[in-house]
Amino acid sequence: MSSNPTSPIKRRVSQQSIIEWAGQVVTVGGDAPVRVQSMTNTDTADAIATAIQVKELAKAGSEIVRITVDNPAAAAAVPAIREQLDKMDVYVPLVGDFHYNGHTLLNDYPDCAQALSKYRINPGNVGQGAKRDMQFSQMIEMACRYKKPIRIGVNWGSLDQDLLAKLLDQNAVSATPKELNQVMAEALIQSALQSAQRAQELGLPSNQITLSCKVSNVQDLISVYRDLAVRCDYPLHLGLTEAGIGSKGIVASTAALSVLLQEGIGDTIRISLTPEPGAPRENEVIVAQEILQTMGLRHFTPMVIACPGCGRTTSTYFQELASRIQSYLRHQMPIWKKNHPGVESMNVAVMGCIVNGPGESKHANIGISLPGTGESPAAPVFVDGVKVKTLRGDKIAEEFQLIVDEYVKNTYQNKVSG
Fold it and tell me: In the chain, is it the N or the C terminus that has fewer CB atoms within a 10 Å radius of its CB?
């Protein structure tokens, strides 16, 4: 691995899967960027509420959205959800999340099977005993009939118990028995790989299969995916199965996924945050984007660099300005993305005193160094490393925002002729 910390991360070689709807194609794996995925938490039977949440998730930047399809009412609502989204010009691909009765729902509701762009199948929940193979086969046959890709998603909490029991029996008589968590990890991987092989035997092309093996523990997740990555070339979907609420969920997801992404492992990611009361669902999309952007893997929106504040800072003004600018940048992105390509790579620095303020501001595309304790009440502004203006008075925020607007307009000009 290169010692240069800014060198591109070498991605694991994988096949490329295609997910699409109405001409919008989302590639996964191969040379595609790491994709951001999310999932609704509405009652899918409520088509309007679900379509609205899908729209918000897509607007926030989710490139793939998964919806629960767990009963006849939900399956019947899927075409209506798709229709509502199409009317709103939201063509994000929908993934149907199936457990237990997916074979029945896909068979009984062909419009649902067609309206979805992808099926998620958990091999631990497709049936028991002889029914497992039959019901799994029925779902794969539907995927082949409607030309839909699938994700085989194995979860620690719903592992194939027959496979686990078999591996535990083998381990018990082994000369070098493994720890229980190692046996369970092997069961996860074998369940995913055997299911993928069976899907191919049933006629599904290998490049239409994505795998995931989710657990809740950070170290276990890293270990499982490292092993899985060298045993197949399917695209891999990353995520802790239950990350948690608030900062715990963000930290756990970042800790696990950053290690794997740094090693080139992972083609789609989802941050499974438990929403705090009243918190918007799209927060999980923003966290996923920020992980990828801070690692230099993708750019989604201009980044704001701000100091944490200390005894040298006179007030919370720089914090308020940083928050205001960050919200403004994200709010402007839907417009800027169309008219100013490349703006998503811009960096803006909002600093609170002279110690690091001017230096950090010079390293950003645009930076402002606000006065700290005992400093002159002036805020120098730097553009591409050059001091261009000093702001004073009670309109600093408004004037700085105008400077940002002007920089975007002049630097990221629309290259699309028309």
Answer: C
